[in-house]
Amino acid sequence: MKTLPLVALVALLTGCNSFSPDAGHEVVLIEKPIFFGHGGVDADPVKAGRTFGALTTDGIDVYMQPQKLEVELPDTMTSDGVPITFHAIVVVQVTDSVSLIKDFGPRWYGNNVEEPFKTMVRQAVRRRGMNETAISTTALDAIDGEIRDALTAFIEAKSLPVKLITMTVGRANPPDAIKNQRIETATQEQRIQTEKQTKLAEDERMKAEQSRANADNAYRESMHLSPEQFIQLETIKMQARVCGSDGKATCTFIQNGATPVYNLGR
Predict the structure, then answer these.
(1) How many whole angstroms separate alpha carbon 114 and alpha carbon 154?
(2) Which stretch of 181-185, 210-214, 231-235 has the lowest confidence by average pLDDT?
(3) Which domain holds residue 140?
(4) Could you tell me which of 15, 24, 26 has the C-alpha nearest to residue 52?
(5) Counting Cβ atoms within 10 Å, is residue 168 exposed (0-12), middle (13-18) or buried (19+)?
(6) Among 2, 54, 86, 193, which residue's beta carbon has the most beta carbons within 10 A?
(7) What are phi and psi of 223, to 5 degrees?
């Protein structure tokens, strides 16, 4: 007789389901009575602690914190007919778990939001060219704002118990052929810039040489020297520099490979 309460307790526990959501989660209960009563979604979700339900009661876990949903859109056509790949991110937060499961089910995003969201991105991209979206990215901010407004309006019109936190379209990648062409173009532009800088340096050097030649010629004329005399004078200056200006060096210069001509220094 003493074992009957224990047996009854075990029988009671094995005939129940328990639900204990984690922090940031809620569990929506769906009752499915076998014999009596009406089934359906329980109006009160399980928010904290542990709740027991009938063996036929199911619980659907709903994440209530902001959640990031990502989508890849390959071969999205631009206005100039170039297919580019987009990576889009949308962050949403469920505001009513019971209404979400009751009206839209656990696959609410895939069944209600994902495809319209992709369509919004494609339509926004079709209105812009490849260069402004994938290369210079000047249109991405405008695309973000346009899709954000459209997605917010869609959620409100559909009465989804979801709040849009943010939406971002990023990583617009053109085809490999386009990227290779851009790399080749950049390489050619850099080569042109290098050649321009080289030419500028050579022009500056030519100007410097021309200025020095003009100065030398002006000096020659002011000294009333013939070109030959000026060359001889410059040769003597060169020889003096080679032998040193302190007067201690002794140098012997051979003219025409035969007779010593100058003996500079001591």
Answers:
(1) 12
(2) 181-185
(3) 67-174
(4) 15
(5) middle
(6) 86
(7) -90, 0
